[in-house]
Amino acid sequence: MRRLTRRLLAEAWSGLRIMLICTVLLGIAYPLVVLGIGQFALPEQATGSLLRDEAGAVRGSSLIGQDFADADGDPLPQYFQPRPSAAGYDAAASLGSNLGSESAALAAQIEERRTQLAAFNGVAPEAVPPDALTASGSGLDPHISPAYARLQAARVAETRGLSLDEVERLVERCTSGPDLGLWGEARVNVVELNLALDGRVAARAPRRSAAPTPKRPPARSSRSVASEPGLLTNVNGWVEWFSQVHRPARDHRRSSPCP
């Protein structure tokens, strides 16, 4: 009986040692090594690809789009608008429309969007590009085509009191080409473009006290609302939360084509 008890205790101790070793290696050492590699090799990506304004406040992420609309959900004319989103640009609920190419509901949505965008931008319906009419698969894509950005340039310039040539030059500088010159297509990051546009307007305007950054953003929201000109709000609160709990030693900003 004693021999059996000693054997059981020995086996239990062996199992406990394996569990402790695996806990230290896989639960502590491995995550710390991966974190260290990320902070050393890809610090900007490892911290969420955060975008900050001139005051250093986090205004979003270059990886996640925002819905530039007012509290009623109406698009703000002073901002470039992103693609439609089935997820409402909620970073916690990425999804597509799940509508097939032969779906009558999808066809109706496209025609409705075409009419609304043509009226909003003062162009002919046939001038609206396809990416302005269809949602991305993730519902979080921050990019639009250069054609869609150029289509909106006149509206943004008129609303902000800028020249069309100046806005178009900014769009050109914020346009990224295919990855490595081979993969993908030319694209414009709407969040970066609007942030650069706000910075340009703020530089011209008289200096005023900065709008306070919310200390505790809403836990969940279906859209990120730019509540006033010159101010981009956070993406559903998660970006600001992440920047507070995981602040890097240095301010790593994305190398963006935008000025």
From TrEMBL:
Q: Where is this region: Disordered?
A: 203-228
What InterPro entries does the annotation carry?
A: KdpC
This protein's UniProt keywords: ATP-binding, Cell membrane, Ion transport, Membrane, Nucleotide-binding, Potassium, Potassium transport, Transmembrane, Transmembrane helix, Transport
Which GO-annotated molecular functions does the record name?
ATP binding; P-type potassium transmembrane transporter activity
Q: Where is the composition biased (Low complexity)?
A: 203-227
Q: Where is it found, in Gene Ontology cellular component terms?
A: plasma membrane
Q: How does it sit in the membrane?
A: Single-pass membrane protein
| Compartments where located | Cell membrane
Instruction: Fetch the Pfam families from UniProt.
Output: KdpC
- List the transmembrane segments: 20-42
Q: What does this protein do?
A: Part of the high-affinity ATP-driven potassium transport (or Kdp) system, which catalyzes the hydrolysis of ATP coupled with the electrogenic transport of potassium into the cytoplasm. This subunit acts as a catalytic chaperone that increases the ATP-binding affinity of the ATP-hydrolyzing subunit KdpB by the formation of a transient KdpB/KdpC/ATP ternary complex.
Q: What family is this protein classified in?
A: Belongs to the KdpC family.
Subunit and interaction comment: The system is composed of three essential subunits: KdpA, KdpB and KdpC.
From the Swiss-Prot or TrEMBL record, give the protein name: Potassium-transporting ATPase KdpC subunit
Q: Which organism is it from?
A: Leucobacter massiliensis
